Amino acid sequence: MVAFLRRNLLRPFLALGLCLCLGLSGCSQATAGLSGNYVDDTVSVAQTLLTTIALPQDDPAHQEAELQARQLINGYTALYRPRQDIHGLASFTTMQTAVNSLAAHYAGYANRPLPDALRSRLEKELKKAEASAVRGA
C-alpha cells in the first residue's frame, strides 16, 4: 500500500515541483537588469553593448563584459521579441539586427576579436537604434 501511494502520489508532486523550479528560475533570469520600458531598455542595452565592443580583446574585463553582454542580449530578446506592439518600430528591427549579429559572433567565434568591419557596423546600428527609440520610431 505504501509503495502504491509513493508511486502514484510522490512522482507527480516531484515532477510538478521540478517544473515550477525550472519555470520560475527561467523567468527570473530572462529580464535581469531590464526595466520593462522599451525605450529605456533599448538605450541601456545599446550603451552597454557599445561599451563592451569598445573593450580591447586583451583587457582583463573583456571576458566578464562579454558574458554580461550575452546575458543582456538574451534577456532583451526574450522580453521584446514576443511583443507585437513594438515589432513595427524601426528601432526594434535595427536593434534586433545588431544583437543578432553580435550574438552570432559570440556563439561562433567566442575566442576571436570582433572584426573591425563588424564593430563599425554594430556601432552605427546601435547608435541608430538608440536614437530611433528615443524619437519613438
TrEMBL record:
PROSITE patterns cross-referenced by the UniProt entry: PROKAR_LIPOPROTEIN (PS51257)
A Pfam family that the UniProt record links to this protein: PSII_Pbs27
Membrane topology of this protein: Lipid-anchor
Domain of life: Bacteria
Keywords assigned: Lipoprotein, Membrane, Palmitate, Signal, Thylakoid
Signal peptide: 1-30
Cellular localisation: Cellular thylakoid membrane
Principal location listed in the UniProt entry: membrane
Free-text function comment from the UniProt entry: Plays a role in the repair and/or biogenesis of the calcium-manganese-oxide cluster on the lumenal face of the thylakoid membrane. Its presence in a photosystem II (PSII) preparation prevents binding of some small extrinsic subunits and thus assembly of calcium-manganese-oxide cluster.
NCBIfam families: PS_II_psb27
UniProt similarity note: Belongs to the Psb27 family.
Subunit structure: Monomer. Forms a complex with a monomeric, partially assembled PSII. This is probably the complex in which D1 is assembled and/or replaced.
Protein name: Photosystem II lipoprotein Psb27
Species of provenance: Cyanobium gracile UHCC 0281
